[in-house]
Amino acid sequence: MITDWLSAEMQEMLRRKYISAILMARLDFVSGIVAVHSGVGDVTFEGAVYKGIGVLGQVSQVKQSNAVKPYTLRLTLSGVPQELAQTALTEKYQGRDGRLYIGAMDSFAQVVATQLLFRGRMDVMPINLGNPSTIGLDINSRSTDWKRAKNGRYTDADQQARYPGDRFFEYVSQMAEKPIYWGVPGKPIAASGGGGGRSGNPRKQN
């Protein structure tokens, strides 16, 4: 077992007698949490019931790095009950939360310790329906969002949709067509190619 990315507490727990390691996947769908683990039977963790599917399938390498950059975890869930596969097939999932934990389970099928290995947003999910079914899932790290163009606009309508009641951009559309006057009443500021310093034609003083 590769343990260089496990906490000291988790490593110590997994060395104990009658403790086995399981992988736990938690996927946030619109209708609720879909949670499975690589053991047998149901276990409860943080209010969610994880269904045991015996084997979690394939999990790509969980990268640990000090560099902040986008990356993707590829997760294959094998032996998924058909009702869970139907939920994944029919509900909205892209952009929603997905997590992968490692857990320590005792001989009474109780999860006694966990460590979060990866958390991100669900992306593409090819599904092979059967009995049981197989689900493939890409979970993107949060930093993947930095590569995507934002759809926001500096308009009152966009600001109201995001933050109802915030009137910061209320007059932006009106200001776009208005000239700006500086210093001399009634005259718009002239375009200038230079920087600071005094003008060569100073205004006459009365």
From TrEMBL:
<protein>
    <submittedName>
        <fullName>Uncharacterized protein</fullName>
    </submittedName>
</protein>
